[in-house]
Amino acid sequence: MVRAWQTVRVVRPLYLRPSAALRHSSTSTQTSCTRWLVRPPSPAAPRECPTPLVLLRTPGLGYGASPESSEPWKVWADMFALRGYTTVEVDVGVSVPLVAESEQAGIKQAADTLDAQLRRLLVPFAPVIIASGPACLVAQAYVSDYRAGGLVVLEPPPDEDPRAEAKPFAWPAFRFEPRFPILVMPPPGGEEGVRTSRLGMQALDEPGGRGVSVIVEKDGPRGEETRMDVERWLDWSGY
Predict the structure, then answer these.
(1) pTM, whole model, 2 decimals?
(2) Residue 219 is part of which domain span?
(3) What CATH number should be reported for the domain holding residue 87?
(4) Tens digits of per-residue pLDDT, 74-104?
(5) Out of the domains of life, which is the source (predicted)?
(6) How many CB atoms lie within 10 A of CB 51?
């Protein structure tokens, strides 16, 4: 379902304490926004970019997460603000028990929590969602149901359920079409797995524009060279 975004200018950074965060819960899954930090574009930026960048983490959704993919996005958020973007750091905590009450329950609720939080931003342009590791599952669930201007996934989990035994939530399957620019960034050595995935098989030969691009990370999911590749892709894509 696509919903309209209202318009108001973001004038200063905002940090929402976890005690004031929005929460969604059910009998078996709880999600809450535990961090919310908005950085407006720097006055020294060469230009002001109208599309906000949402840098997502999902504490508690820890399958297969590398230590680096779970780190805060502070450096990226600061650098993109200096380049003229409104940046939003969002943590959506996910607590899922050993048996989820319905398929994709925890992932879907986390996406709903993210949408409820982003509505407080009140910006005219749909955001580009940036996520790494397990947070890519929530990012893809979000763009499946809500309006998005683009998607960047770094080290995304595979399409098929890779878990051997304990399964606290059903592995999600996504069917959204790449009607907006999508960037997939595997780690070195992970190109083949990405290119045989649903999104990877739709990758363009050249990055930028509508559709899917694949660029291999140069120095990890929080590295500056990787961030620069994302910035160039944003430019190529017309943001």
Answers:
(1) 0.83
(2) 32-161+178-236
(3) 3.40.50.1820
(4) 999 999 999 999 999 999 988 765 444 444 6
(5) Eukaryota
(6) 18
